[in-house]
Structure formats: structure tokens, C-alpha cells
Write a structure and sequence with these properties.
60% of the residues lie in helices and 0% in strands. The protein is mostly helical.
Length: 95
């Protein structure tokens, strides 16, 4: 599996948070997971390990905020934004 490809535990966790149990939408979910990781990286988060609960929570909120059609879900994106700010400022997550 490609190192940029999300691991199964991350994909399963995000899929469950969206209330899906089948793999029908995995390609869209994977794209959003990768977009979240790229956005965190652009914000200065250097240690993006998906087994870290704060990183996984940030990714999950990003995906939930951008999932599906229609307007973004602002409550999830606000949580993501706050997590991203805190992660980018925390020494443990910087390179």
C-alpha cells in the first residue's frame, strides 16, 4: 500500500463517523482524508500520524465538514479549524 494512502484503521474510523459500513464511498473518503492531511501539513503540522487521537479527530472533522453535496457543515469545519490551529502551534507536532 502507498505510504500516502490512509491505513485501514483511519479509513474505518472515518467511515464509521460518517455512519457508513460499506465501502461504496471509499474513494471519496480517501480523497478527503488526503486533503485534510495536506491542509494540516500546509498549516505547519509536521507530525501527521493517524494513530494520534488529535490528528485522527482533525481528519475526521475535516471529512465530516466536507462530506456530501450541498453546503459545507460549518460546525465540523470550525472544530477542524480550531484543532488545526492548536496542532500547528504545539511543539510536539512541528518539524
Amino acid at each position: 500500500m502507498d505510504s500516502n494512502y490512509p491505513d485501514n484503521a483511519t479509513l474505518d474510523s472515518v467511515r464509521l463517523s460518517l455512519r457508513y459500513s460499506n465501502k461504496t464511498f471509499d474513494s471519496e473518503i480517501i480523497g478527503l482524508i488526503e486533503a485534510a492531511k495536506a491542509d494540516l501539513s500546509l498549516a505547519g503540522v509536521g507530525r501527521i500520524e493517524t494513530n494520534d487521537p488529535l490528528i485522527l479527530q482533525a481528519i475526521t472533522q475535516y471529512v465530516k465538514g466536507n462530506w456530501g453535496y450541498g453546503e459545507p457543515k460549518t460546525q465540523y469545519l470550525e472544530i477542524y479549524k480550531n484543532l488545526k490551529i492548536h496542532l500547528s502551534m504545539a511543539g510536539a507536532y512541528r518539524v
